[in-house]
Structures are given as C-alpha cells and as structure tokens.
Specification:
Elements lengths: L1 E7 L3 H13 L3 E8 L2 H7 L7 E5 L7 H11 L5 E5 L4 H10 L3 E4 L4 H12 L3 H5 L4
Parallel strand pairs: 1-2, 1-3, 3-4, 4-5
Length: 133
C-alpha cells in the first residue's frame, strides 16, 4: 500500500526525521505534505489526498489541539497521530478529547510507528510493511 501522509510540526528537522522514520519502519511513503503549524496544514489539506496525519502539540499560530479540532470538522474519519514532547496524562487526555486518534511521545520509535500506524489505518502490519515487523 502506498502511504500518503501529512506532517504538521514547527520543526523542519522533526518533519524530516518522521518521514525518514516511517520509511525505515517499512512504510511505502509516496506523498508527504509538510506544514509548520495548524493554519498552514488546514490550508493545504484536501480530503482524500492523505491517509494519515502526524501532528505536534506545541506549535505557533495554531497548536495541535486547535488543529485537530478543526480538522475533525472537515475530515472526521482521518487517522490523526499526535506526537508530543509534552506528554503529561492531562495533555494526552485533552488531545484525545479534541479528536486525536492516538497520542505518543516524541520522538517515536520505529516499533511504535510499526504498531500504531497500521492500527490507526485499520490494516494488518504485514500488509503495510511487507511482513517486516
């Protein structure tokens, strides 16, 4: 399966590392849309063009909470994986209440990506990674 992703993070280095990490985890990432904050991401988002969204929590202009809330209004079913360095239980709970499908700590490990992404997409790990786990 070809994976089309959106990465929303104010750090260009983190966006690059996440895209690379997904490929290293065995995903066939064929399309990447990058945005430095939620405002940019909403302007670039087109329903049907993205399979999964990866989003940071703390960003300028529009943070992850507001972005997830607003994205849910236009794309209620898209998987959103919030990745944050600010992983207190209260913040993680608020992120889920705003509409994040899953919340994990920064930086995500290859194992986390291999487990979480297929689960969010509703597919078996072997289908996305060709059996490599």
């Amino acid at each position: 399966m070809k994976l089309r992703i959106m990465i929303v993070d104010d750090s260009s280095v983190m966006r690059m590392l996440l895209a690379r990490g997904l490929r290293q985890a065995g995903f066939d990432v064929v399309h990447v849309i990058e945005a430095g904050n939620g405002t940019e991401a909403l302007a670039q988002f087109r329903p049907g063009e993205i399979d999964i969204v990866f989003c940071d929590l703390a960003m300028p202009t529009m943070d992850g909470y507001e972005f997830v809330t607003r994205l849910r209004q236009v794309a209620p079913a898209i998987p959103i994986l919030l990745i944050t360095a600010e992983g207190s239980p209260a913040k993680m709970d608020l992120a889920r209440r705003c509409g994040a499908s899953e919340v994990i700590q920064k930086p995500p490990t290859l194992d986390e990506l291999q487990r979480k992404v297929p689960a969010l997409l509703g597919l078996a790990v072997s289908r996305l990674t060709g059996g490599a786990v």
